Amino acid sequence: MYADFTPTRYRLQSQASGNIFEDNGWTLDAPGEEKPALIRAIYDHKQLLTLDSSYGLYAFANWLPIKRLLEGSSAPVTYKSEGLGKALGLSNLWITFSGYWPERNGGMTTCSFKETEAYAVCGRMNPEQKQVLVVASAGNTARAFAKVCSDNNIPLLLCVPHDYIDALWFSEPVKDCVKLAVTAFDTDYYDAIHLSNLIAKCEGFLAEGGAKNVARRDGMGTTTLSAVTTIGRIPDYYFQAVGSGTGAIAAWEANLRLIEDGRYGSNKMKLMVSQNNPFLPIYKAWKAHSREMLSYDSELARQHVTEIEAKVLSNRKPPYPIIGGLFDALTDTDGDVLMASNLEAREAKELFLKKEGIDIYSASAIATASLIKSVNEGLIDKDALIMLNITGGGEERFKREHSLHYLEPDLLFGDDPDMEEVKQKLAGLKW
Questions:
Q1: Which residues of the chain have a pLDDT value below 50?
Q2: Interatomic CA distance for residues 271 and 286, integer angstroms
């Protein structure tokens, strides 16, 4: 179907030094630089050229750092809100929806915007690459990568906390090219990241890279591209819940490219990101005017993770302080970090279902609750152009309409695995 695709032309730039260099195929850091910083894709096409909807996510391919197009993708969908906007007294509220919603052409069957990451990252991989991709996740990312890799026969090893594996549901059985390693009971996303880092050091395995992977960020940035190309200009405000903040960084980077494009305005969206109280590491660092993350006792962090409903927002070491990361994105856009409780999120979720007609994830409900609070507290102009990034939805409907298959663990690890244990267990896996 995509045989005529020409790989996207781009180079990479260090956000610390400004140096521009070629991508060696899977570059995650600027060569020869010691200061931690994100790298950014610099595309040959300065204006966004969109393809038709049959390309799914790849309608935005000329601003994605990819070598190939994969089957089965869907793009985020943007529409002007009537119900929620009217309920909140907002005259110009636009919703960007990533998930399952057939009536609005929402075709993400994992029901999460993590599909935007997975299709972009896997599209960046060289088809001849023989390494196994390693991805850590608290649930949604794992589900998205499992679907994309299964559908396209890409070897994948997922690292997920044991308590979160019920999120690994699918409408079809997952192929054997996808394997699952789980950390012990009562561990969290941080433990899954630790395990993935150990595995990625082993021969034959490739670290996906998280926020450092330009394909992950630019894939997520398609939410902003969807919004701006649909609306016709850059929004004034951008609302999203964050765990790592990578999606907000991606929105900021897409915003900067759209300014350079020249057709959509010159303003920077005010990033209004939110966390689920009481798990608030980004919120507390930002309110303390600190680039560095504040000290967070591990046991207290684990306790807070058990208390929040939006488990996907539980990243203890987000790309907040790194140059080009979330701190810089918030600073450059005069943004803010908000918070919402489980109760506020549940009420927002109910309101969204009632006014818009589709169920949404807890993380999306945190973003919606923060929008509601911002309106009630007079923090935003009710006539401003607002983008609400609904990063996941339609799961309840999807599960009602489909039979489900669950991914079972291939490897089980204890509380604190070491390299010897990792190598021993990996030796038993076959792809």
A1: none
A2: 13
